[in-house]
Fold this sequence. Notes:
The chain is an alpha+beta fold. The chain has 2 domains: 4-139 and 294-323, Gcn5-related N-acetyltransferase (GNAT) (Aminopeptidase), CATH 3.40.630.30; 141-292, 3-Layer(aba) Sandwich (Aminopeptidase), CATH 3.40.630.30. The chain has helices spanning 11-25, 31-42, 45-50, 99-113, 128-131, 168-179, 190-206, 251-262, and strands at residues 4-8, 51-58, 61-75, 78-90, 118-123, 136-138, 141-147, 160-162, 184-186, 213-221, 224-234, 237-245, 271-274, 285-292, 296-301, 317-318. The strands form 2 sheets. Strands 1, 2, 3, 4, 5, 6, 9, 15 and 16 form a 9-stranded mixed beta sheet that branches. Strand 11 (224-234) and strand 12 (237-245) form a beta hairpin. The protein is globular and about 70 Å long. The model has no long low-confidence stretch (mean pLDDT 95). The structure holds coenzyme A. Residues 24, 64, 88-90, 95-101, 123-126, 129 line the site of coenzyme A.
Amino acid sequence: xxNRAVVRAEGAILDEILxxxxxxxxxxxxxxxxxxxxxxxxxxxxxRVHLDRLALVENDAVLASLKVYRxxxxxxxxxxxxxxxxxxxxxxxxxxxxxxxxxxxRVLERAAGDGADVALLFSEIGAEYYARLGFTAIETHEVAxxxxxxxxxxxPMTMVRGGDDRDLDDLVAMGKTRAAPYRFSLDxxxxxxxxxxxxxxxxxxxxxxGAREVRFYIAEEGASAAAYVLVRVRGAEWTLEECGDRDPxxxxxxxxxxxxxxxxxxxxxxxxxxxxxxGFLPPQLTVIDRQPSKDVMMCRPLSPNGAPATALGEAxxxxxxSDMF
Length: 325
Ligand SMILES: CC(C)(COP(=O)(O)OP(=O)(O)OC[C@H]1O[C@@H](n2cnc3c(N)ncnc32)[C@H](O)[C@@H]1OP(=O)(O)O)[C@@H](O)C(=O)NCCC(=O)NCCS
């Protein structure tokens, strides 16, 4: 008789999952660092409450597993609760027998019972598999940016310093204002923003020395943050994970990036990859390439409250790379 259950992945079960998923998602970390990276994400103020890993087990054998992230969000001007699914994985010996589907169905049923309105995921395997599970794709594009450097070399006049926890309230306020016109966005409170920054720093810290860096910088005005950037650096590849600016045009974000670039050796002019809120492009930046995102953003309503008034399109959604899971 089948004896299947969905359980929280801890101890030996978690270890088995980490061993099985390591090859797919290690991001250059050692096996030990990969385990520490997950444990540390679960240990942030946000992770403790909002992140879980669940497994479908049968007689103590793990069949499939996934991560669930609980977010608060805004959809068509009403508050919604989001269940984010990540790292969906079926142990190789158990594939093609519906284990992932069963786990997703059971997890979403439970999430809906707990009040979730929308399920959200980023598919690494195209849209088809999840479309069969009722998810709809929202088109998103990744842009490659170039920073226009001022003719006279040198940093523009902006007070720039490293960011830290005392800036979080300013970041929350900037994010809220920026998100207001969009139909769908996450409600990014202090803990979520801190989690996003800590996650990037952890990955850099656990990676081989020099492989990755994180730059979190603030443009200061008075004693407070008037703009910020969170940039992930991997060799010559920069990713603008998120940014914010009290100036609607984003001119201070552009100036911040100019300052960071002015500190680079002259021969190094990285391309900056980003997801930018639709319609937002700081004046100092030029889009030099635009491609459909590799990971397909998909969502599925779980309650009447989670059904968008009309289908969501790219222009309706504000979502930072930092919040990708
Ligand atoms: C994707 C995955 C979770 C599916 O698990 P599963 O328990 O075998 O899933 P189901 O039995 O419910 O469905 C099997 C179907 O998944 C789909 N599928 C599996 N891998 C796929 C891939 N790489 N691309 C597109 N579709 C895929 C296929 O439609 C497959 O049906 P088929 O074998 O008849 O072609 C599993 O293959 C896996 O763990 N892959 C490696 C990790 C991964 O890529 N996870 C997805 C991250 S978004």
